[in-house]
Amino acid sequence: MFDRFKTFLDSLTGHGHASSIEPGDPRIAIMALCIQVMEADGETDEKERRKVRSMIKDHYKLDDAALDALIAAGETAESEAIDYFRFTSDIKRHFSEEQRIDLIGMLWEIVYADGERSEMEDHVIWRIADLLGVSGRDRIIKRQEVAAKFRIAEEETAQQEK
């Protein structure tokens, strides 16, 4: 699953090592959607922030300054947006259905990073998926895959602690 996510992120810029953040950079739209998902339940958990930072930083090989610039650009874009359409319309036009489904999987990873899933997070991802043209079936399959992955990780952690 991570390989598919990596391929998706590569497709956004055409390569996996871009570090400069320019206006119109599709990574800003991805970051803004990540922020919207993190804030959906009214709490921005540190585990969610770390998940987003590590996924984006590791994939793009960003240093802390470039990562902070991308986060700041994403926060600005997110605060100026009146809805999700600003971010999803461009993604929908430029990316395949499989890539859009992979993005939904990434957003579920953010939701589950804090170990809890709220009704508001479900709603945000439903809206984003709908605007991206991702079917309800695919959205639910991605949620189940991510939830199973997190359950396995929790079980392994619990066993290691014994």
Please give the structural blueprint.
Blueprint: H1 2-13, H2 26-39, H3 46-60, H4 64-80, H5 85-94, H6 97-113, H7 119-132, H8 136-161
Helix pairs in contact: 1-6, 2-4, 2-5, 2-6, 2-7, 3-6, 6-7, 6-8
Instruction: State the oligomer.
Output: single chain
Class from secondary-structure proportions = mainly alpha
Low-confidence stretches: 13-18
Whole-Å distance between the termini? 29 Å
What's the CATH architecture name? Orthogonal Bundle
Q: How confident overall, as mean pLDDT?
A: 84
Pfam families: TerB
Organism: Rhizobium giardinii
Domain Co-chaperone DjlA N-terminal: 27-142
InterPro entries: DjlA_N, TerB-like
Task: Describe this structure as you would to a colleague.
The chain is mainly alpha-helical and 162 residues long. The chain has a single domain (2-11, 20-161), classed as TerB-like (Orthogonal Bundle). Helix content is 77%, strand content 0%. It contains eight helices and no strands. It is globular and about 50 Å long. It starts with a helix and ends with a helix. Residues 13-18 have low confidence and may be disordered.
